[in-house]
Amino acid sequence: MSPLARIPFVRAAQDPTGSCLRDGERVLDNAAFADAVRRLARRFEDLGVAPGDTVAVLLPNCGEIVTTMFAAWFRGSALTPVNPVLTDDEVRYQLEDSAAAVLVGDERSRDLATALGIAWVDVADVHACDESPLLERDPVAAADDFALVIYTSGTTGKPKGVLLDHANVDAMSASLIEHFTLSPADTSLLVLPLFHCNGLVAGVLSALRAGGDVVVAPRFSPDTFWDLVETHRPTYFSAVPTIYAVLDARTEREADTSSLRFVICGAAPMPAELIARFEERFGVPLVEGYGLSEGTVASTINPVAGVRKAGTVGIALPGQEVAVVAADGSPLPSGRRGEVVIRGANVMRGYLGRPEETARVVRDGWLHTGDVGIIDEDGYLRIVDRIKDMIIRGGENIYPKEIEECLYGHPAVLEAAVVGRPDAVLGEVPVAYVAARPGRVVTPEELLAHCAASLARYKVPAEVEVRAELPKNSVGKLVKGLLREPSPV
């Protein structure tokens, strides 16, 4: 039996009245949470949801998503969380591709479920304190049962379903607990969306498994964020670089961060200068990490208590191997640049229904990330860029991240993104897009001069465009695809 599926019931047996899950004004203790999971599992059983089926949930961040996940696992089913900002067509694609047997959600999801002929559960019933029957037997999920079907962002082609079994998620959550020494004294403030691995595994599951509790935050706002921290007293939260940049730029008062042991940054590279500024200003260690959904969230993270190297994404997490390899797959020594590969029990089972793509990405047990990195002599990984994002200008290789880091060094820059643009003579040239910090004005000429002072001439952008804001996905990650100009016909 999977130890993950038993978490609510182990907690309820050990400390029935202990805090478990907070969502707005609602607080569920361990006993109430365990009962809610059993009640929803019974509902799934009555609807014919069987072991091996997939349960979908279409909701903004809320405690019901967590309850749905554990209820699905109780039945031996997998959970596929759906991004609520997707269009109906995009939602239908995920529901059909994952062969969802039931959809949990609101009125919108009822109409979608009806149109597809699948069962529907009203979100209002998930935590309803009624007398509906519970499933009293033990959960049935096994280690090799699928636990999560997480869909990639689909920047190229249709989104792919990443298949993670209980063994993957078990290994990942155990690794995070060990690395961060999580305990019952910890409280996670959930900032990131629950349709991604980061929110589900790092933000929720690891804290609950360690005996701590979880606070589900409302939609992020810099105007109210520190109020949440001061009210709920979390010991950690995980966010993306954009959130940290906005907090740094928009916070105008003193914030009480004394409850925080550390904060985590992932999903995209964070400028070293911003890390240092945030740590100094708010007095909390900011540890940057790196990982993919295909690796169940995280593979490297900087230590909380040990040496943190700004500009790196830290060392390999317990139970994982991280290496850098040449184009032919041969390992490279420290200091050499190559593709980052990952091996461990956290590596996905594969892409749903895509065996050829799975075989291209997972070879001989190693997950090939498509990221370019360098591992130093101490084992710290620095991500250079995406292989596919590399710009070749007149035969010279340019990594956009290097230019972006230079731009972030300008005091007026809030966000920066560099992409390649076709050029009739040079093949490609770098073009930079920048958003200024609130209250600051900066010109393209000023930014070009700033780059020219620090970068080789061939790395200086051919053009800089200053915009009010840069395009982002629902997690807050910059979307470069929307900045790239189409190739000339």
Automatic annotation (TrEMBL):
Gene3D superfamilies tied to this protein: 3.30.300.30, N-terminal domain of ligase-like
Domain AMP-dependent synthetase/ligase: 12-352
UniProt keyword terms in alphabetical order: Ligase
UniProt keyword annotation of Ligase present: yes
InterPro entries from the UniProt entry: AMP-bd_C, AMP-bd_C_sf, AMP-binding, AMP-binding_CS, AMP-dep_synth/lig_dom, ANL_N_sf
Domain of life, source organism: Bacteria
Ribonucleoprotein listed as a keyword: no
Domain AMP-binding enzyme C-terminal: 402-477
Similarity section: Belongs to the ATP-dependent AMP-binding enzyme family.
Protein name per Swiss-Prot or TrEMBL: Class I adenylate-forming enzyme family protein
Source organism (scientific name): Nocardioides ginsengisoli
Lineage: Bacteria, Bacillati, Actinomycetota, Actinomycetes, Propionibacteriales
